[in-house]
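User: For my dataset I need records formatted as: sequence, then structure tokens, nothing else. Please produce one.
Assistant:
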Amino acid sequence: MNRTAEWALRALSAVGLSAFLLCEQAHAFLEGFIDSQDHHLDISDWLIDRKGFLPVPIVITEPAVGYGGGVALMFVRNSLRDSGERARETGHMTPPDIFVLGGAATENGTKAAFAGGMVSFDEDRWRYRGGVGRADVNLSFYGIGGTGLGGGAHSLAYSLDGWMSSQQVLRRLGESDNWLGLRWIYLDLNSKLDLSQDPRSGLGPDQTTRRTSGLGLTLEHDTRDNIFTPSKGWTGALDATFYSPDLGSDTRFESYRGHVFAYWPITESLVLGGRLDGRAVSGRTPFYMLPFIDMRGIPAARYQDERTAVAETELRWNFTPRWAVVGFVGAGRAWGQNTSFSEAENVISRGAGFRYQIARRLGMWVGLDYAKGPEGGTWYIQVGNAWR
């Protein structure tokens, strides 16, 4: 055998050995995502033991901005296993400390970059949640009430370009599941909305203001059996935020929100969920901070006014331990500036979807929903519960 042939055989052997080792490593890696009980795809062990950096893909299906995506780099300081051990000491389930940095963009030119985190300390008596971001968001304004400028479907395109910050500290009340929080929200946004295009917008000049800064209080309660996909218990909050020139805001106004998400196990495989969500503002509120009807099937910021209310219900049938189907229906109203609650029209959305239990030990389900509202239907990718 000549030297060239010998070298070729050695090279082929090396390639074959490398391929074999890679296949073995890939097989061992994939085995870590198979549940030992039912041999289905499952990421429980990986999530529970995971620390360090974790890349998370972002998929956007919001009809108000179009399809898009991005990536977030998430740093988990202590694993869920560590959090579980800490929960046995404190008697409360403490979420892991998480920090995130990421960015995303959509097909209509919307783009954003953000950084933030959530931290628990002093044996979970205190929690911090906060983040800061830079965004250029392209949306449409359909007038107060969302009925369309001039009574039709006409709208004005606008963009919000600038910085946003939300900082919140929460304190547990005794040994209960109740939390009292203090929040600071700051927005410095250039709102590019040309009111001269249509004087029927109903907006005053100070409602296109640039800078808003407000302090707020929140009271929260949470007895859900699972923070990802609950099957029983409820969570709710009352929020009030006050914006003032004394805090650096260009205008003075207040915003309020009250919401409850509740879950009832009808049978072992049927779970009924209910949502009530009300929002309100008073004062000279910038148009982009007016409450809007927030439901699957309704484009974000489509129906805006000084008051909004949403009622929604969802039924989940776990027809196997791994697979489930959901059906949901909801209705919302926006009223306040030009119409009363009784005069406002119902905006109805309905839809269905499926779920797969991707992390059995954590009770986390993921899936896809199709929701249809007055403007048509769209798809939503869901990780955990759809209500926020």
